[in-house]
């Protein structure tokens, strides 16, 4: 069970006055999630792959808005992949 599901069940048990103003799933998503040692290795692998892809873009694409956008999307994909690692598939 994901942490936010546990939090929601506890809040429901305590009654409506204990329910946080922010839905538990939003609370879970926006909290800091410290990665474990294994997750740190996975994050490093994702970052290295993103760096290599950006280097390939620099080496093969002329400087342009499209090349900048491609690198921005690689960064976004890296960040989303890293979030999936630390959120442990709960979102």
Tag the structure with descriptive keywords:
91 residues, mainly alpha, 2 domains, 4 helices, 71% helix, elongated
| Most strands sheet | none
Give the DSSP E fraction (strand runs of 2 or more residues): under 5%
Large-scale geometry: elongated
SS class:
mainly alpha
Number of domains: 2
Radius of gyration, Cα only, in angstroms? 19 Å
Number of beta-strand segments = 0
| Oligomeric state as shown | single chain
- Determine the fraction of residues in helical runs and give it as a percent range: over 70%
Compressed to H and E, one letter per element, the order equals HHHH
Which regions have little confidence, pLDDT < 50, spanning 5+ residues?
none
Q: Count of helical segments?
A: 4
Protein model, in words:
Helices cover 71% and strands 0% of the residues. The longest helix is centred in the middle third of the chain and has 24 residues. The mean pLDDT is 83.
């Amino acid at each position: 069970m994901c942490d936010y599901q546990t939090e929601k069940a506890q809040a429901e048990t305590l009654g409506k006055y204990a329910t946080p103003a922010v839905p538990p799933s939003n609370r879970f998503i926006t909290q800091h999630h410290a990665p474990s040692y294994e997750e740190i290795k996975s994050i490093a692998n994702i970052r290295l792959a993103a760096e290599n892809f950006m280097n390939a873009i620099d080496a093969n694409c002329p400087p342009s808005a499209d090349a900048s956008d491609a690198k921005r999307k690689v960064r976004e994909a890296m960040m989303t992949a890293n979030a999936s690692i630390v959120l442990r598939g709960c979102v």
